[in-house]
Amino acid sequence: MSIASTAVSTRLGEIAGASNVVAEPAQLAAYQIDGQIPGAAVRPGSVQEVSEIVKFAAAEKLAVVPSGGRTKLAMGMPLRKYDVVLDMTRLDRLAAYDPADLTLGVEPGIPLQRLAGVLAGHKQFLPLAVPFLSRATAGGTIASGVDSPLRQFYGTARDFVLGMEFVTGEGAPAKSGGRVVKNVSGYDLHKLLIGSAGTLGVITRINFRTFPLPVATRAFAAICASSDQAFDLRQRVAQSPLRPLTIEILSPGTVELLSSEVAARIEPGTIPVDRPAKDRWVFSTSFAGHEKTLERCARELSRMADASGATHISVFGEEKFPAAFARQREFIPIALESSAVTTIVKLSVLPARMNEIVAAVARAAEGNELHWAALARGVGVIYVALLAHALDEDSRRRVASVTEEISAACTHLGGNFSVPCCPAKWKPTLKMGGPQRSDFPLIQKLKNVFDPHGILSPGRGPGGL
User: Fold this and answer.
1) Taking Cα atoms as reference points, which of 6, 8, 15, 7 lies closest to residue 50?
2) pTM (global) more than 0.85
3) Count of CB atoms within 10 A of residue 26's CB?
4) pLDDT digits over 3-22, tens only?
5) Which terminus has fewer CB within 10 Å in the chain: N or C?
6) Three-state secondary-structure class, residue 373
7) 3-state DSSP call for residue 330?
8) For the residues of 118-152, what is the DSSP string, one character each?
């Protein structure tokens, strides 16, 4: 350890306690991001300690990266610098909970699964069914901006995060929004932190609106001969009076992934629908309500599936639904574990254009002899896994060609393109996002206001901010 590193660790120990500082290289390896290892890790136990650590980092020009369950550190643009990791897992308390008012305040390090247990005791929940759920924390989930299959009905975190408290890049505590649903004061600045990857502030508290647990749920699946049939069925459901909890369309490659041994290891349980024949797509949805409502939904969905030409229509209840839902939720980690080299592409287009962009993905991947899998959500968000065989130049060229073609097709359709995950070695040369947004100068100004010294996760923001 260098003298400079020792001095940093000593000062961090003075702020948070020596037992809450990690300085040994072997232990710091657990915090590596794209092959970069920080010089120190510190676990603050209070907002005041977070503030003091950030002030020290700003004075010493040390790059700071907030961390939670470490499930999504590999996502996003490469870091320009990485000196200190701010491990927020000690800040894991339930700050406030009013079940009658459907409001909740938590510290960022609280695990989502523990939070779900508390809420379930009051027959409530948060619609944060996100990838890596078993290890994810509330703060990391919000900062990464990952979405959930439940966004079909409940929206994204922007729709049920009521307010936040955070520490700016100058070490100043700040807050935005409120703790109740009917808060109308000020600007919703906290929404800027959703998906910011720790580049604008260190989240220290999140206030949520909670939701009642559904009385009962059912799931519905239909096997389709083509993507045309699957997306036609999605359109029929969207134009109907039904309001599903989830709508997801699985490509043949995704069905294969979710039926694999890797998937069973990540999410044990039996999938209720047998794997269809090769080249078949699966349309899946779920819905909630009382028994008569569920029966009507099943009848209407069966009728629409017949009209779309789908076959092998299945309806299953509470006892069979969780395993299938969990594996679809964990599509990203399953894809990452299923290939020696996986690249995840995220696309968003108008729902009516999803079949077009999926067709473009198929042409690009198959034209470059690259195995692929896609999971499309009914709201217009599509995750594509590009599954290369080796971390070599030939595979990189193939993946680069595919991402260029997909990005161009997505831009042509008026959509958005990004690469949340890919091998670290490829990040400098792979296309990681679409054309620069017209509001990029405004984003730069916001970064300068929130983090004037540029110490918070430098490089991970849009355009490498």
Assistant:
1) 15
2) yes
3) 7
4) 457 889 999 999 999 999 99
5) N
6) strand
7) coil
8) HHHTTTEE-----TTTTT-BHHHHHHHT---TTHH
